[in-house]
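Working notes for the structural subgroup meeting. M.R. asked for a predicted model of this chain before we commit to crystallization trials. I am recording the input and output together here so anyone reviewing the notebook later can reproduce the run.

Input as submitted:
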Amino acid sequence: MSQAFIREPDAPEPRCPAPSGCGGLGQSVTRASLVANVGEEAALVLGEELFFCPDPDCEVAYFDATGGRVGVDRLLERRWPKSLDAPLCACFGVTLETIASWAREGRTDQMKAFLERAQGPEARCLSRTHAGRSCVLDARRVFVREKERPAP
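Returned structure, recorded in token form:
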């Protein structure tokens, strides 16, 4: 059989390493984000391909492709989603509860203003967030979920 018809195996997905990790999918992060959140010394234990474990119940915060890991206890500050009471938006201190209340109260104006600010030049996502990316997608998910939730 010709080599052209043999499928290459898929690259393994980045999974939070056992035994202390949850086995969940990781989110790719840059070294700059890692260092900003755990410091240079803690970051030294990890290789080049870096991931964040988003499971709030998992004690692993960051890991690499070879199984190295940095625990939640090494985070320089509480970070959402590892601490659900920490701000969802680390740049501006906006919490999950604030976004949920905007949704329940129909405050789309507040949400819109926040999203504009979170996408603007004041946002420091690379250094302030757990994975070095904007909170906008997570904030929208929370807002929509709460807006669609039936009133008690």
